[in-house]
Amino acid sequence: MILRTVAIYLMLIGFAQASFASGATKTAIFPFEMVIEQQMGGVGLPPVPNEAERARLELITDELKRLLKETGKYEPLDLSSVNSDIEEQTPFNRCDGCEVEVAKKAGAELSVLGVVHEATAVLLNVSIFVRNVDDGTLRNSMAVSIHENDDKGWLRAVRWLVKNRLSDQEPQK
């Protein structure tokens, strides 16, 4: 009798967790990309972030995923099944919404793309773009300028954008 009660209890917890997760919008959060002003004079080549910048791009991508998941409104999807598409089509910041097709392939309802634009060594703009996967409509775009080109500054920018520009809004499907 006790085992049966425990089994039913565990099953109810599982159903509750599944229903909570299903209320969140399936979201493809793409790795942050970088635009480096000093490299824009090249012959159409994408900018090449240095090792520290690549590590920061990964750091803030992970932070964005964590923060959006914590709101309970977004369900970040595992994009490993579309890694080859991501590698083939990046940088997405040059194609005005082409990431939507990759997000659709991953089963997402929304796509989120972050871009760090380095104007100078100490002036950066961090932007986030949210698109509806069904029709590619830009639902939200936000940006903040920072004067700290280090982990702390980049993380502060992402946290500020999520807190002040994204978390109070309902995801629009």
TrEMBL record:
<feature type="signal peptide">
    <location>
        <begin position="1"/>
        <end position="21"/>
    </location>
</feature>
<dbReference type="InterPro" id="IPR021698">
    <property type="entry name" value="DUF3280"/>
</dbReference>
<protein>
    <recommendedName>
        <fullName>DUF2380 domain-containing protein</fullName>
    </recommendedName>
</protein>
<dbReference type="Pfam" id="PF11684">
    <property type="entry name" value="DUF3280"/>
</dbReference>
<keyword id="KW-0732">Signal</keyword>
